[in-house]
Amino acid sequence: MTIAHPAYSTKSCRYGAESLREAALLIRAGEPVAVPTETVYGLAADATDNNAVAAIYSAKGRPSFNPLIVHVADIAMAERLADFSPVACVLADRFWPGPLTMVLPVRADSGLSPLVTAGLPTVALRLPAHPAMRALIRESSTPLAAPSANRSGSISPTRAEHVLASLDGKIRMILDEGPTSEGLESTIAAPEADRVRLLRPGPVTAAMLEDATGLPVITGAAEHKIEAPGQLESHYAPSKPVRLNALRAEKDEYLIGFGLMPCHINLSQEADMREAAALLFAALHIADASAATRIAVAPIPQDGIGAAINDRLRRAAA
User: Fold this and answer.
1) Would you say 69 and 126 are in contact if contact means Cβ atoms under 8 Å apart?
2) Which residues pair with 255 in a beta bridge?
3) Smallest Cα–Cα separation from 316: which of 298, 293, 297?
4) Cα–Cα distances in Å, from 67 out to 206, 287, 306?
5) pLDDT tens-digit profile of 118-168?
6) Angstrom distance (rounded) from CA 108 to CA 111
7) Which of 26, 56, 191, 306 is deepest in the core (most CB within 10 A)?
8) Main-chain phi, psi angles of 26, to 5 degrees
């Protein structure tokens, strides 16, 4: 006989000293908590606790071969978890705190749960810029594993209400600090001695990585393996079919526009790429909740952060 466990009562609390203390108590008790970063809302739990990390996978319905990003409060904490090469140090100096995740060799004495690395010899590390996430890491006194706070494979959350719509009853608490600023998940890069491998495009572009290191930036994972989050072919997906590079809406389509054009919602009438990135997931949530049965998205240029926007759209449409 299977015993049905009662769903949690999920509460959304405005970020502040009291809600931060409550969130840290939940983290220390092995519970995941949704918390904003500058990229998207993350589902954070103690990265050193097997049961806590398993609770993330369970709440999200996430495949366990997909590794998690570990968030740290400062460089010293990061250096206790992974080995930093000279190239990694250059990237940390330039882009941390910020929306860059680095895949680095995990230290044997890191204390991290093996579930975080999905059995790989590397760990994905990020020092986020958002004060709420960094305060929660400090208050919890532990590095936090934190994938996006949504059901696995669905649209990433850039607001607390997106988290609630996806994970209501699956987690106890959401820290609400309004919309995220970047709106796209972090860039993931694997620094090597003579090159940087770009595993997931994001707000830190390939050109920025090249400029910082003076090294060539190549795209793709080694031997087409899953090395980092966000590499699954179908990801960030709404419940409705998505058509890309659409110049007009067909019957039963909700059109997400870019630049001056007739559409239902516009990512940026001024064709501002950063504005488009910040609004992308919110627009997909709105389109998914509309009466239309399909979603269409206007062409987005590939340059700069456009590479990251198009990466997310291609996976959403897969």
Assistant:
1) yes
2) 296
3) 297
4) 22, 29, 25
5) 888 999 999 999 999 999 999 999 999 999 999 988 899 999 999 999 999
6) 8
7) 56
8) -65, -45
- Which of the four pLDDT bands, split at 50, 70 and 90, describes residue 222? low
Query: 37-62 burial, b for 16+ CB within 10 Å, e for fewer?
Result: bbbbbbbbbbbbbeebbbbbbebbeb
Rounded to the nearest 5 percent, the helix, strand and coil shares of the chain are 30, 20, 45
Tally of CB atoms within 10 A around 110: 18
CA distance 223 to 105: 18
Q: Please name the amino acid found at residue 153.
A: G
- Determine the Cα–Cα distance for residues 93 and 220; give it in Å rounded to an integer: 24
Specify the pTM.
0.89
Helices within 160-305 (DSSP H only) = 160-167, 206-213, 273-289
Give burial (CB, 10 Å; 0-12/13-18/19+) of 7.
exposed
Tokens of 178: 């309004």
- Determine the 3-state secondary structure of 220 from DSSP: coil
Q: Where are the beta strands (DSSP E) in the chain?
A: 11-14, 33-36, 41-46, 69-71, 100-105, 122-126, 144-145, 173-176, 187-191, 196-200, 217-219, 242-243, 253-257, 265-266, 294-297
